[in-house]
Specification:
The structure is a homodimer of 203-residue chains. Chain A is mainly α. In chain A, 77% of the residues lie in helices and 0% in strands. Chain A has 10 helices and no strands. The termini of chain A are far apart. At the A-B interface, α1, α6, α7, α8 and α9 of A face α1, α6, α7, α8 and α9 of B. The structure holds a DNA duplex (30 and 30 nucleotides).
DNA sequence: TGGCTTTTTGACCAATTGGTAAAGCTACGA
DNA sequence: TCGTAGCTTTACCAATTGGTCAAAAAGCCA
């Protein structure tokens, strides 16, 4: 009956799907969904356009796949926020991890930013289903720390917003940061943000 | 000889150019440069496509005009930062003005963000010519305040980056903020950011 | 090697899109 | 009111783009 057995993907399938997704990440993050073309992705992947469409049902399929995969990576640092750890250490480590991601995964950051910027047309369900519960959970953890007198009284939601915005800024607005910075911005950012959130969170 | 006299625009010209730019702001900020079409802009403006092209030489012309106009509005709050004023008051007022802009001019914020996100292909010259000098000047002002012992020791550049990112976040990432917020986010943001930068800047 | 499946390609298509040309309409001063 | 400059529209391109299809090529295994 149910013979829709997944039939594990061949080595070629794995390789080519990966090639395509990596190329698509380049192109989508650089030009946005509408600005990216299948031809660009095909060239970047070193495959022909019809071949791309052999592995994905269409442009949107590639984009959605990319966003789904990204979601996991993206939320990971927040998942690691440990309710049983030392509050200040946990939060400052979270800031550091997010800044590391902005430095190491700028394409992913910009892909995400572009999607949200345009109203999250393809990611909205993911936000509600995955991000919201995690966000609420971690807000409760932070609120617990505050109630226990271990952190200054801040609104956990806006605290997290400010962590996201200040760190992702260095990836998403890189073109601007580059114009305005002399030296390596990330190193300065690490020191500055560490100081900033230490001051904000100290009781 | 030089009869390239500007020949002041007629009432119709003024009205239609304004209609077009307003419609284009809607469309460009919602879909990005490549995602926006002249047809969309024409419909939004209530004019025919060829008529749009009577007032602007092309799609890019509209976009560039929009960005140029935006630049002035965008830098205005920073221009108002007064070196002779009280440092803490001046900076907290700057934060408030930026947050007001995120609330009142979200389309402009997103247009700007989209352009930077894609590497500022059309705005890079403006950034170097207009933003950079102003940025450097105001950084020097802030550094002066710090040297005078009136503010905490912070890197002025990263301070400004953090003001930009935290405030613009509420416009650019509105789709995400909406999913994660119960009440009006801006009011909470005002209180939070006021507290945040007060703590960061206090000696 | 031979035969079957998986992968790849070249040729092609319909829709969209930025843009043009020229005719037609409208407002407004003489 | 009439002519002309300014404005608008209809009809039309050429290029791009997402996507299809059937045939060819390449793997793979007995």
């Amino acid at each position: 009956m149910q013979d829709d057995a997944p039939k594990k993907p061949s080595r070629i399938q794995q390789r080519n799907r990966h090639l395509i997704l990596d190329a698509a990440l380049d192109v989508f993050s650089a030009h946005g969904y509408r600005g990216a073309t299948l031809d660009q992705i095909a060239v970047a992947a070193g495959l022909s356009k019809p071949n791309i469409l052999y592995y994905f049902t269409g442009k949107e399929d590639i984009h959605v796949t990319l966003l789904s995969q990204l979601m996991e990576t993206w939320l990971d640092p927040l998942v690691e926020l440990d309710a049983t750890g030392d509050p200040m250490t946990e939060l400052l480590d979270y800031v550091r991890r997010k800044l590391d991601m902005a430095r190491d995964l700028p394409r992913e950051s910009r892909l995400f930013a572009g999607e949200i910027l345009q109203g999250a047309p393809r990611m909205h369900p993911h936000l509600v289903a995955d991000l919201k519960p995690l966000f609420d959970e971690k807000c409760a953890v932070i609120q617990g720390w505050i109630d226990a007198g271990k952190l200054a009284q801040v609104d956990p939601r806006h605290l997290i917003f400010s962590i996201w915005s200040t760190t992702q800024h260095y990836a998403d607005f890189d073109a601007q940061v580059q114009v305005l910075s002399d030296e390596d911005p990330i190193e300065g950012a690490r020191r500055y943000l560490d100081m900033l959130f230490r001051r904000v969170l100290s009781v």
